[in-house]
């Protein structure tokens, strides 16, 4: 029997909440006319069960506390629509009334799904949902950075209510009891003796217990796996991380796999077991992950440090002239070049996973200097719509992948595109005797012609 290493610290307190009553109006009609705006006041609590208490990190209470800055979106699952407006709590605390105005069409008996933790701006709902006329939802847990300050942005919850009355310009519903979509985890990394300070962490599993994304409307999980893990890139090395994980509770036993790169580039691995009942959503778990050094050490460097930005997604943005060197397993990381930069590849060796990419797309006046042998294994190189990209130097760039539209530009050096009826000319050139070579095996190289 496998040992389970997570232990429950607590869960979110919600029992015994008292409400300030919402006001009522005389009933005028029980069908909402098209285009009319209706006032809504829904008594609401947060939490999942009575054995859970509030998890407080800093000034924010996760899972059981309302904030007047919270935004709640209103969905009608029966016709797959989202209301143009959102609701907000009328006060802070464990219970509140969700108030605001709705602009849709509502009838008595309608079932509404209320979702907390998404923000709608200019028809884009962040960080979960994209709205394009009908409700097209994909929830995700990517772009976490392991900090307790940032994990609060993944404090998502949902509730179902039923419309009981449509009273003139007012809608009355049943009370809302919100349940979390996820649990919060505190992981402490050690090699069995000393703390391991992580710079990035990959979390995978073998049977789909942990989800990367979750469709709110049809309630489908998109699981992570060993080949496409959830990746966290920390702002500064730490032996303790905080992460929100969505658990697919239909999956029984599974093994959660950790790959940790420490502050010196050393790669460690470790595992934790899970069961049908632990972990589940709506809890706070903490545990120690004992890691084993794999013998692999990344030596990847971008210098100087002030000329690049590392985003929570793990992607790099090159904003000034840099030298990139050393070896690295990139996973799904991408490196983007700003306009006007000069980038030197010096003995670079990158091994990519899903969607790994070096991207000069849409840039202009960029220069790539090849110093020594540089190898990109399972890493794409994007040059779509570049202007004045120059490859030069005495070295080579070998084994990279390109899309067909990029390959044409690599081969021809000049392509004119039709963009919205207007011509756009992309240009790329080689100096110092460098040439583009199609290796014939799905990869390409740039090196001196023979």
Question: What are the key terms here?
Answer:
450 residues, mainly beta, 3 domains, eleven-stranded mixed β-sheet, 42 strands, 2% helix, disordered N terminus
Topology record:
Blueprint: E1 7-11, E2 38-46, E3 55-57, E4 60-62, E5 72-76, E6 81-89, E7 95-102, E8 111-116, E9 119-121, E10 124-126, E11 129-131, E12 135-137, E13 139-140, E14 157-167, E15 170-173, E16 176-180, E17 183-190, E18 198-205, E19 210-215, E20 220-223, E21 230-238, E22 240-247, E23 254-262, E24 266-274, E25 283-290, E26 292-297, E27 301-303, E28 308-310, E29 316-318, E30 322-331, E31 334-337, E32 342-352, E33 357-359, E34 364-371, E35 373-377, E36 380-382, E37 387-393, E38 396-400, H1 404-412, E39 414-419, E40 422-430, E41 434-438, E42 444-448
Parallel strand pairs: 2-15, 2-16, 17-25, 29-31, 30-32, 31-33, 32-34, 32-35, 33-36, 34-37, 35-38, 37-40
Antiparallel strand pairs: 1-25, 2-7, 3-4, 5-6, 5-8, 6-7, 8-14, 9-10, 11-12, 13-19, 14-15, 14-16, 17-22, 18-21, 18-23, 19-20, 19-22, 23-24, 24-26, 27-30, 28-29, 38-42, 39-40, 41-42
